[in-house]
From TrEMBL:
The keyword rRNA-binding does not apply. Could possibly oxidize fatty acids using specific components. It comes from Streptomyces eurocidicus. It is an enzyme of class 4 (lyase). The lineage of its organism: Bacteria, Bacillati, Actinomycetota, Actinomycetes, Kitasatosporales. GO terms for molecular function: enoyl-CoA hydratase activity. Keywords: Fatty acid metabolism, Lipid metabolism, Lyase. Pfam families: ECH_1. SUPFAM superfamilies: ClpP/crotonase. This is Probable enoyl-CoA hydratase echA8. GO terms for biological process: fatty acid beta-oxidation. CDD domains: crotonase-like. Belongs to the enoyl-CoA hydratase/isomerase family.
Length: 257
């Protein structure tokens, strides 16, 4: 399928989805949302894809939701169209996702990055939820996911003042897993994605599901959920392959089933 605002490439078992609205710093209008969701859901259904990387340009991962598109809308427009709820489907993908963030990741851009499973940043990345400066608040989960990622103190300051964080602060705060030089970001993200895609696909899905469960439930319920999945992996052939390969001192070849 061809898209107007994103580029989709495949290499081996990984896919790269690139936001491509340079004239608007990848501002997230409805077309971007619909295309990212359609493309990633198609990749999610493809058994040959084991990890999806989402990136933008060097200058901007995404400078937020499209302010010009939202500006004239009424409450009824937003409510009846359930504005931005389709983004939730990105967080519901079963295939692991990696956000490779360079430059601005503001408002909806920061929220989009936080919808991904692994968040890698370049040393030029800038994160923030500056919606308050526009007279609005985050609308794609930013007030919730940022708070879970960096804690109340920093999330509250960012959401109430619109202050942004550079990559080093974002890493210290636990928002991103790693910071790499801008020139290396994409190669590093694709390498991480290749590593994930080389694991057992069902077991990687279960690992993702287990970690994500920690955001939704109590510790006791989360541990119980993990234990059930842990028992279930012994029904996956890749468990035998992984442990046999260890015992035989060789590299495992997972069947992706
Ligand atoms: C629409 C945007 C945009 C956005 C940038 N542009 N961000 N268009 N929506 N979010 C456009 C500019 O209008 C401009 O178009 C072009 O991209 C280049 O941007 P400049 O501002 O000229 O670039 P620069 O001076 O380098 O400043 C970069 C910037 C600034 C600091 C990132 O663009 C900025 O502050 N953008 C808005 C950031 C923001 O507030 N994000 C949160 C959005 S609200 P022209 O045509 O003039 O060249 C949000 C809510 C989410 O995300 C949930 C809602 C439900």
């Amino acid at each position: 399928m061809t898209y107007g605002t994103i580029l989709v490439e495949r290499k081996d078992r990984t896919a790269l989805v690139t936001l491509n609205r340079p004239e608007a710093l990848n501002a997230l209008n409805l077309q971007v949302m619909n295309e990212v969701v359609a493309a990633t859901e198609e990749l999610d259904r493809d058994p040959d894809i084991g990890c999806i990387v989402l990136t933008g340009s060097e200058r901007a991962f995404a400078a937020g939701a499209d302010i010009k598109e939202m500006r004239p809308r009424s409450y009824m427009d937003m409510y009846l169209s359930d504005w931005f709820t389709a983004w939730d489907r990105l967080g519901a993908l079963r295939t692991p996702t990696v956000a490779a963030v360079s430059g601005y990741a503001l408002g909806g851009g920061c929220e989009l990055a936080m919808l991904c499973d692994i968040l890698l940043a370049s040393d030029t990345a800038v994160f923030g939820q500056p919606e308050i400066k526009l007279g609005v608040i985050p609308g794609i989960g930013g007030s919730q996911r940022l708070t879970r990622a960096v804690g109340k103190a920093k999330a509250m300051e960012l959401c109430l003042t619109g202050r942004t964080m550079d990559a080093a602060e974002a890493e210290r705060a636990g928002l991103v897993s790693r910071v790499v030089p801008a020139a290396d970001l994409l190669a590093e993200a694709l390498s991480v994605a290749g590593t994930v895609a080389g694991m057992s696909a069902p077991v990687a899905m279960m690992a993702k599901e287990a970690v994500n469960r920690s955001f939704e439930t109590t510790l006791a319920e989360g541990v119980r959920f993990e234990r059930r999945l842990f028992h279930a992996v012994f029904a996956v052939e890749d468990q035998k392959e992984g442990m046999t390969a260890f015992a035989e001192k060789r590299v495992p070849v997972f069947g992706h089933r």
